[in-house]
């Protein structure tokens, strides 16, 4: 042993040797006679030495031997014998559902249980289970998932960006190739796959600023524009900025959100430890804002939080309403009085299709209010996912920071810098949305045809949807004027409510679940968005194709009638 300079250790259970061996990844074996370790060592022709004190190994000057009493050795050998390669300290689960960051513990699935069940049903069908329907149709706001075709010029341009050889291909329109070349020139290395700076390519931010200027009639500043991976990241960074560390027993920062609300807001409130201040949209007044109610809501919350921001969603999700100019102006004034940053989620600004019901941006209304409002702070959100473009998966979007100092904007940059840069394809999509083909461009005609066809189809489907819903017993629905959704109220019979409670479900969740299991149509229950106590709703999207929508609504109407008959309140009972 001395000649071969082997290291060996006693196996005293309390010895430091084992720990040290573990740290140094030294292999070791128990030496129990029946040990599997011995067999393995024999197979591998490994020599081993007994621990007998008279062993020839002991006098070896190069070994470290910590003598252990025989009892300790015995206990140890018995305990480890069946795990010959096990170290003294077994690997432990460090991160459990109880020790994981509390932010993760607080997180919840914003899509809800009905949606989870919908995916289970899809899986069951894929495994061959028979259902009373052929297809599961989940009603979410993803136009291409419903078969809506992408806008041609946008995809052609992306094709040129990804395969620059198409830049010389005569099949691609000239204006498309020019747009692609212009974007590529702005990238490092004439390559769409390069990183960009944190806020995105300056050229594209300029495109966005020009789009905003055209839209509002007031110049926008390129330095106010941050390109984001979809609207979701704009929400994340915007709301994150409103949080505080709350040192010295300060109150939580409060955020006013409309109810019903796009569920992402609730989950970000949980994530950033904000205090939710719900304000209810007025359903009977076409889901408009009621400033008196908003004032009551903030006054009630003030003892519990320090209100810092207000979220407005226009056009609305899930409500499908477009706010009037006056309503927006009132909200801006309310924010001034209450010292709130306004977070305007305007991702559906291009998804307006009813003549005479235009979209007004918060920024335009703000600028119309005059220079007195120059210091007003507004964050305005847009996305490539919605509208007739519907490019959900490309992850394009922007956040405009209006009225924020350069110091704050550079703090946004610092905060976002670890993410390196946004998706370049998403950035390019945003550029193309902001710079569509113009009259005289080769791709203009097709672009206008495609855009008009999609918006006209939305208009027809919105009307059919509103009419169908209003024809159902106990259901009322405001006209769908924008965004992609109808959010009807349903007055459920008492028996249905009781049955839902027996099943531990919210009544509208129960209704949606039953509808899904019977027809394959998957609406989202009102409970996911929040609603006034004692009222029930569900959300449908107008996105299914016109061929599919009529038979789908027939199935829905038939189910509804059967459901209402089954749970009819029987006055005689
Ligand atoms: C109101 C609203 N805001 C923001 C988003 C975020 O969309 P995306 O992250 O796809 O841009 C959505 C998506 O449905 C939405 O409905």
Automatic annotation (TrEMBL):
CDD domains (alphabetical): AAT_like (cd00609)
Catalyzed reaction equations:
L-alanine + 2-oxoglutarate = pyruvate + L-glutamate
From what superkingdom does this record's organism come?
Eukaryota
Q: Which cofactor does it need?
A: pyridoxal 5'-phosphate
Record EC number: 2.6.1.2
Location in the cell: Cytoplasm
| Pathway info | Amino-acid degradation; L-alanine degradation via transaminase pathway; pyruvate from L-alanine: step 1/1
In its UniProt record, a GO molecular function of this protein is: L-alanine:2-oxoglutarate aminotransferase activity
Which is one Gene Ontology cellular component term of this protein?
cytoplasm
Domain Aminotransferase class I/classII large, first and last residues per copy: 173-554
Q: Which UniProt keywords apply?
A: Acetylation, Aminotransferase, Cytoplasm, Phosphoprotein, Pyridoxal phosphate, Transferase
Question: Entry's InterPro entries?
Answer: ALAT1/2-like, Aminotransferase_I/II_large, PyrdxlP-dep_Trfase, PyrdxlP-dep_Trfase_major, PyrdxlP-dep_Trfase_small
> What is the annotated quaternary arrangement, including any partners?
Homodimer.
Q: Which family does it belong to?
A: Belongs to the class-I pyridoxal-phosphate-dependent aminotransferase family. Alanine aminotransferase subfamily.
Its function, per the record, reads: Catalyzes the reversible transamination between alanine and 2-oxoglutarate to form pyruvate and glutamate. Participates in cellular nitrogen metabolism and also in liver gluconeogenesis starting with precursors transported from skeletal muscles.
Record protein name field: Alanine aminotransferase 1
